[in-house]
Fold:
Amino acid sequence: MKWVSAISTHVSLETAIEEVATQIKTQLGMPPDLALFFVSVAFASEYARLLPLLEARLPGTHIVGCSGRGVIGRTSVGVPFEVEEGPAISLTAATANPSFIVLADPFSSGSSELIQGRDYAYPEATKVGGLSGVDSFSRHSGLFCKGELYREGMVGIALSGEIVMEAIVAQGCRPIGALYRVREGEHNVLLNLERDD
Structure:
């Protein structure tokens, strides 16, 4: 995970939030996944406005925070700074580039949309998975997650931190006949094959 921090001492809550949100996004180079904020009691009369303002500037970010008598953060040039009295808000944020493992029931709809959504939201993330086996009589799958059995849908996990996941494609069988190289394809459709002699 990449962590960054910002602080503002502006007397206007809107301006202070704009300053820290802009600094955070600039330092990360992307919107954060998680943001922790600490706001001085000087803004106590405006606490109700705080979360909507932060959420508007950091959409899709998980935001958690609290008030404090002293607020610590980093200035725009990266110097640690503490405010004991007066208005202040600090924002510490992080991004994580998770890897995903997804297992799906082959008859459920939505698996393509889930994969496309993950590709859009996390283009650099590794994504692996597979389809569950289906009982030929009942056409039910067995998917298990958090102590529960699911007969349809998808289960998965996101891994982040000091983890490296590399994906390879394997069909689980030996090739028969001549080898071919894929020269062109669109999504899951092969458009052009060339014999690899």
